[in-house]
Amino acid sequence: MSSYADRLAALREQLKADKLDGFVVPLTDEHMSEYVGSYAQRLEWLTGFKGSAGSAVVLPEEAAIFTDGRYTIQVRQQVSPTEWSYQSVPETSVAKWLQENAPNGARIGYDPWLHTSDWVKQATRSLAAKGAELVAVKRNPIDAVWADQPQPSKAHLSVQSDEFAGKGSAEKRHDMADWLVKEGADAAVLAALDSIAWTFNVRGTDVTHTPVGLAFALVNADGTADLFVAGEKVGDDVRAHLGNGVRLHERYEFEPYLKGLKDKLIAVDPERSVAAITQALEAGGARILSRRDPSVLPKAIKNAAEVAGHKAAQARDGAAVSRFLKWIEDEGPKGEIDEMIAQDKLLGFREALGGLKDLSFDTISAFGPNGALPHYKGTAESNLQFRTGTLYLVDSGGQYQDGTTDITRTVPIGEPTAEMIDRNTRVLQGHIGIATAIFPKGTRGSQLDSFARRPLWEAGCDFAHGTGHGVGAFLAVHEGPQRISPVGSSQAGGDEPLQAGMIISNEPGYYKQDEYGIRIENLVLVVEKPVPGADKETLGFETLTFVPIDKRLIDAKMLSDRELKWLNDYHAEVLALIGPQLEGEDKAWLERQCAPLSR
């Protein structure tokens, strides 16, 4: 269809044919994934919105798109205000908006493979107040009008060896079986793609930037498992790796299999499993035990092999990013490059390392005003040419078999203003506040979040995203359950106690609309940090990312002695780790970047 307005009109016609008065369009897939395969990009196809989180509602006369603070500017640039109203989360929600805007007695459709049971219950209650009804559809109406919708990937799975996984799949399944026995359950549903990849020590290429394969699984109380995946995706190597303890089924057999579990007690994660799963179990007479996916916490707490692999990946990745930043410093002020040229150059530096499997997300290569969009995704239309007098923000990462990286640096192109230096220094102070934090065991990320914001708050500033997210081991770059964010924020999850072995990002920022953005991001590892004479066991962070932080944007006089020492010590570590990987002008540049800063 030639325009997004045409697509919206076609969907409304389909809704009439389906006898529906509205439809809810989330940005997810059957696995509640954050990043989804091209076949599941229904929200982008319908609206043009290219962010990684959002949803929409279509009614006969109205349509609304829902995004959080990360996308306030971006959604207005990409989605037409003529057809769509902009709704801000968490100030409102799809359920609340429907309660206020759905026609009395309306039938509002939803795809049960794209929503959780909790969402269905909430939306049902909200609509009931208007005498309206939430209706599960058998076929998604967008799929009915999306003529050139891509097919799900048919790529083969691959084996993640114990060398990198650090623990065999059978041992992981037996740990889960022990948990099931204690819970009195017969089996646990694994619906999240990274949970399945981690549990079975397999990887895939079905979702861009996330090395997972499309599958569902049940882990049973005897340590065996049932894996539902398209047979064409499983080669002899994977079959041999899985062994006799894993029974293979076609992916389309998952729903009928669930309906055959009469009287079984099945553990289902209400956050990571879609409503269609619980509906199938209930239809077949199974009993449901609402519990968190048993792989989530073990996956988050990295073992020694995963930590070692991550550090090795970070060391290589740091060299590539350092070469790129030297190139930017040389070429940026000439006015001959743009955002897309820059992101392609960075990819080239990473590819030159060897072993790069994929990027860990779409590179955010954001010049000037585009940097004010925290999750900016460049297009040919938005692509900006470099010029002097503003900032360039680059947030990027790589997927390597031994680790997943994620780093953000901000650099001036030409001479920065006093305001830019002030704001960047405050962001750095917040970053150091997290990096140097020592806290009792049991502390949650939400309790640490303000450490990163205080320097900005003191200037009447803030940033509208979480301070940190968990990171997988050659898996999802955004991994739960841990994170550093305010309680009640749209990026929920900050209430998970931090434990030694968790990897998490440290990324405060500042964004001035229509002018520039700033973010400084390293990954950190939660480690034990004993305090002499302490009453409690304490934890802290070990920095894992080693790339220079641009000193041209730092006012040393604003830094405390402790902050200045941290920066100089960090740069000494960067030089020691990255220096031996560089030569000639690249190494000379790194030595200048890592020279101690003084007041």
Automatic annotation (TrEMBL):
Matching entries from InterPro entries are given as: Creatin/AminoP/Spt16_N, Creatinase/aminopeptidase-like, Creatinase_N, Pept_M24, Pept_M24B, Peptidase_M24_C, X-Pro_aminopeptidase_P
**Leader sequence segment:** none
Which terms does the record give in the GO molecular function aspect?
aminopeptidase activity
Residue span, Peptidase M24 C-terminal domain: 538-597
Q: Which UniProt keywords apply?
A: Aminopeptidase, Hydrolase, Metal-binding, Protease
Query: Member of which family?
Result: Belongs to the peptidase M24B family.
The name this protein carries in UniProt is Aminopeptidase P family protein
Native species: Sphingomonas alba
